[in-house]
Amino acid sequence: MSAEPGAGKAQEVQDVEEIEVRDPVSAPDADGVPRRTTRRFPLFTRDTARPEGGGRAAAGDAPAPARQWPVLLVLGLVGVGLLITALDVFRAGTLVIGGALLTGAVLRWLLPSVGMLAVRSRFTDIVTYGVLGLVIVLLALMAQPDPLLSIPFLKDALHFTVEN
After folding, report:
1. With CB atoms 3.0 to 4.6 Å apart as the test, which of 57, 62, 98, 120 could cross-link to 124 if both were Cys?
2. What is the pTM for the complete model shown?
3. In angstroms, rounded to a whole number, what is the distance separating the alpha carbons of residues 62 and 65?
4. CB distance 102 to 126 below 8 Å
């Protein structure tokens, strides 16, 4: 043991300076001591990662609307569908809205980078856009009066719940 109180710490710091970190997963802590980081998620999130495929849909020197054309296309189609619905053509308007969401799912599936259309992982986005678009299209086809699509078990389920 050394007589000086800080001698052990000085020796430790000297040993640390001799260590060369070559492992890309290692990172120095606050004292400069290399420490292997873990692949587990931290308890507290300090930053958010961009979703897979969330990069620009066009070159970086292009104007902002051109870089975000996929989300602008989907939003434009939804806007057209809402306008058609507001003009009292309910079925056609909701079909356009459902088709816009299905278009978003197809764009997310086919394009490597879709800009702000990428919200979550590619799989989750495709499933979310696809299911919501499909449900809206099916509901538009089943809307009264004169539904274009009739699903018999839904009518029976409705009668069962109303009668009992």
Report:
1. 120
2. 0.64
3. 8
4. no
pLDDT tens readout for residues 8-55: 555 555 555 555 545 444 566 667 766 666 656 666 666 666 676 677
Q: Give the per-residue pLDDT at 57.
A: 72
Collapsed DSSP state (helix, strand, coil) of residue 35: strand
CA-to-CA separations, 15 to 18, 20, 81, in angstroms, rounded: 5, 10, 69
| 94-124 exposure pattern, b = at least 16 Cβ within 10 A, e = fewer | bbbbbbbbbbbbebbeeeeebbebbeeebee
User: What is d(CA 66, CA 68) in angstroms, rounded to the nearest whole number?
Assistant: 5
Specify whether the CB–CB gap between 74 and 98 falls below 8 A.
no
DSSP state string for 109-129: HH-S--GGG--S-HHHHHHHH
DSSP label at residue 144: S
